[in-house]
Amino acid sequence: MLQVSCRGQMFTHNRQGDLHMTSMKTAGTIALTALMTAGLLGAGGTYSFAASHATRHAAPAVHLVLTMFGSPLDVQTYQERANLYTKMHPNVTVTVKLLNNYDQEVETMIAGGDAPDIMEVSQDAVGFGAKGAVLDLNPYIKAAHLNLNKRFYPGYIDQYNYKGAQYAIPDRGGFMAMYVNKTMFAKAHLALPTPDWSWSTFLHDAQKLTIRQAGKTTQWGLSIDQWWPKYGSFIHEAGGQVLNNSETVSTVNSAAAKTALQFYRDWMFKYDVTPNPNEWADLGAGMNADALFGKGEAAMMPTGLWDIAPFNQAKLNYEIVTMPRDKRGGTEAVGTGLAVCADSKNPQVAFDVVDFMTSFKGEVPIVTNKEDIPANRKASDMWYREQQGVIAPDQWTTMNQEIFSPHIPPTWNQWQGVIGNELGLFFDQKLTIGEAAQTIVLQSKNALAGVQ
Amino acid sequence: MAKSKLRRREALAFYTFTSPWILGFLIFTIGPIIASLVLSFTNWDMFQAPTWIGLQNYQNLVVNTPLFWIALQNTAYYAFITVPLGIVIALILAVLLNQPLKLRRWFRAAFYLPSTLPTVSVVLLWSWLLAPQGLVNEALGIFGIKGPAWFVDPAWEKPGLILMALWGAGGGTVLFLAGLQGIPQYLYEAASLDGATVWNKLTHITIPMLSPIILFNLVTGIIGAMQVFTQVYIVGTNDSTLMMVPYLFQEAFQDFNMGFASAIAWVLFLIIIVFTLLILRWSSMWVYYEGEIRQ
Q: ∠ CA(A222), CA(A224), CA(A230), 5° rounding?
């Protein structure tokens, strides 16, 4: 539901573009509301001249700033989406601002009293929220009768939630999925993974798909790095989690988490199906997990859905399947959301814009501009239909059911510093999993409590 | 009268020519410097009003923060190896490039070039050179030495960064070359007549005459090395390469501890100023200024 509130006027707007009145604070707004409602309903969800005319002359002009990170295509798409809102509410204009050094620049803007109204957030949403830089959107969500679970797959929502406060609305989707090279699978006489494939099938396939000639690996079964949602997915699949539910201490010392992490390292050093840190360094500074798969030198690679466009361009014969399962399935969400800054002079309008931009209508330009997956269910299904069959229907259904939000504490960066440092040493064989887990648990208490 | 008029004109010229810097300093730099000093006594996360906590940030930094000591130790290790070695290499290169060689200009340009390249490009190049099976280890292999995994093994990351920094020693070479060309030839001729060897000439003429430039390179080198950032930010994977400015950056912009980060900045400033003053005091023992009369 999209809610517009200006000077005591309050309207709600669903994601099909229909507008209906929910409440009004002054009698004087009734006529205006009715006019807009009639105009939009009459136009079948498209913006009408009557509404435009009424809004232009009755509502005060509001200008909002939305900060984001990404590419020029991202800027264009965000602006297109914001302009769709302006088209319906000409008194509200939004300038989309691309910040190159996003964190520093947006933090400086906020600290300097020049906060944007809306900001793109990722794992930093909860941190910003806990510091009071972005608003808890629950009161706005409630007033707008916005059902997040209906609009998004549940796995997308909690990454922006801390102790019940919802600091952002999911906007861009994305989760870990396994890209598989179909040509390599066919050559190895292996069936493509099914949605319920297990860790043992995964390892078996990775071993079969690794080819060595004269002591040199010419084809890797798996291309994987040490990015947190990747090992996080495997820990989840094993039945473990990285942090306890209250996010006060790490639980990587659980048997499930240690099993998953050991399995992860064994691909490098025991089974030799993926490059180890030294081998990655030898592959060159420009080489990473995505590039190795994209160059056709690896048969499987877990990552987000953003590689579809470049791999299609490279005419790679691939398909995307679910992550392999152990005790359960699991694919960690890595998307971005839209938050409303606490210093916004028009928080309600800013929320309305966010509400619209994350609605189906507001997310359609993400699909039409061939960007990566939107978070909105209906828009993500539309996006799915555009993907030329790279994801089978049963795989798509399973993926969406298995998306889970990472545990994101307010001190996310400090926490990542601790776990990244110790797991780096573990993956480099400098520590055993027991030693690494023990240190992580010990240091996690301070990091999660925000102690230097 | 004429003398004071000349002095006034000189002073006017001085202030006119330095005014862009002075104005820039007053408008853009002095405010943030004072603000950071005040903020270092506060608890400020950038988003809420700062609260005054006195010396607590400094106390926490020194007493309760192991990462600060790790960063300081790593930075000192990097600076105290990179700077002296860099000066020695730059000096050797300058002496060699001052000889009447064929293609001398080409060599001068080639040695100076690395110091003009963007740090990111240099890091990418050296990531390739220092790969476990890269060119450097291949070369070591010729002598039967098994090279380390430079930017992978935590124990070898700092030496890798030092090696990378030394490649840019050509920047200092240019200054030494200018200094070498200012040494009067008659000093060498007189020394030759007295039977001085090449080594005697180097240690008794060249190095003393270049000592102000050595001092300059030493002071600016220490200041620069203590503030190393970009290459560490790109290459560093764990605490073994954590250095002061990346640590400060992390506290300020990633962990939202701007008050604490300001305290780190001031401690770093104090460390640099102490080293600079010590070097300047020590320099009176070995730096020779032409025309200087010692008491």
A: 125
Domain assignments of chain B as residue spans, ordered by start:
59-283
Strand order in the sheet with A216-222: A211-213, A216-222, A298-303, A177-181, A318-321
Between positions 123 and 162 of A, the ones with CB within 8 A of B are 127-128, 131-133
Beta-carbon count within 10 A of B30 CB:
11
d(C-alpha A271, C-alpha A263), whole Å = 10
Which listed CATH number (3.30.1050.10, 3.30.565.10, 3.40.50.720, 3.40.190.10) goes with A2-173+335-385? 3.40.190.10
Distance (Å, rounded) from C-alpha A124 to C-alpha B88? 46
Is the pLDDT reported for residue B1 higher than 80? Answer: no
Q: Helix H segments across B152-257?
A: 154-166, 170-181, 185-193, 198-201, 207-226, 230-235, 244-249
Give the N- to C-terminal CA distance of chain A in Å, as an integer: 42
* Assigned CATH topology for domain A177-332+411-449: D-Maltodextrin-Binding Protein; domain 2 (3.40.190)
Residue B249, pLDDT above cutoff 80:
yes
* pLDDT at res. B238: 83
* Strands across the sheet containing A19-21: A2-6, A9-13, A19-21
* Cα torsion angle, A323, A426, B60, B267, sign: negative
Q: With a cut of 50, which residues of chain A have pLDDT below it?
A: 1-56
Among candidates B46, B154, B237 on the partner chain, residue whose Cβ is nearest the Cβ of A107 = B46
Nearest-by-CA chain B residue for A429: B153
Q: Which CATH architecture has domain B59-283?
A: Orthogonal Bundle (1.10)
Q: What is the pLDDT of residue A144?
A: 97
Give how far A429 is from chain B: nearest CA, Å: 10
Question: Residue ranges of the domains in chain A?
Answer: 2-173+335-385, 177-332+411-449
**pLDDT number for residue B220:** 95
This model of the complex carries an ipTM of 0.80
**pLDDT for the residue numbered A309:** 85
The answer to pTM > 0.90 is: no
Give me B191's structure tokens. Answer: 């020394």
Those of residues 323-342 in A touching chain B at CB distance below 8 A are 342
B56-103 pLDDT, tens digit each: 999 999 998 999 999 999 999 999 999 999 999 999 999 999 888 888
How many Å lie between the alpha carbon of A427 and the closest alpha carbon of chain B? 11
Residue A24: what pLDDT?
A: 33
State whether residue A284 sits within 8 Å of chain B by CB.
yes
